[in-house]
Amino acid sequence: MDVREALKLRKSTRAFLDKEVSIETINKVLENAKHAPSGVNTQPWQVAVLTGKSKNTLCDKIESTFRAGTKSNMDYQYYPLKWEDKYKDRRKECGLLMYSTLNISRDDKQKQIDQWAQNYQSFGAPMLLIFLIDKILEKGSFLDYGMFIQSTMLSAVEEGLGVCPQASIAEYPDIIREELGYSEEKLVLCGLAVGYEDKNNIINSYRTPRENIDTFVKYFS
Q: Among residues 6, 34, 62, 201, which is most buried (max CB within 10 A)?
């Protein structure tokens, strides 16, 4: 598999087979990903790998907190406080594509809530990676981390795995730190659901569109 193929195959997988991912496989993925670049070689990534009971217990606690109506409290501001139209439109289209694929109507709020709650279970993936970073680091390290996460996903695709990056997992960071024993000095960035894609599940059938490059590229000579 070449890079171009991996880039196009990578998608947000939201249904997984009941098949474990071995530690040897994920170690191979992370061994490849660690070669991602970072400013002055800071290598800011710290990864928690959860499977089995540890994954299920954490996911259950986060979902229960969400269903109890507790407001999320991320360690950083992920989305803009004010949405411009083009970003708002893409966000709306993304949601409509998923709900229409699942035949969930705009008026069926309970089904929408239940579907969103699947985020906190990592969509049933057998493995969950949680990415953490020292709070003393600044925005440049977030840029570095993005390259590491993309490298992780592409390497996982090469291993035949499905992945779904999840900012939602970081919505309740205090639960994660308490459950996994991390200090307050660690910022929770996001999660990554990892497993083998259930290709027969309809939720994995849709793809979000991408803009033509002429909408975001300018040439200077």
A: 62
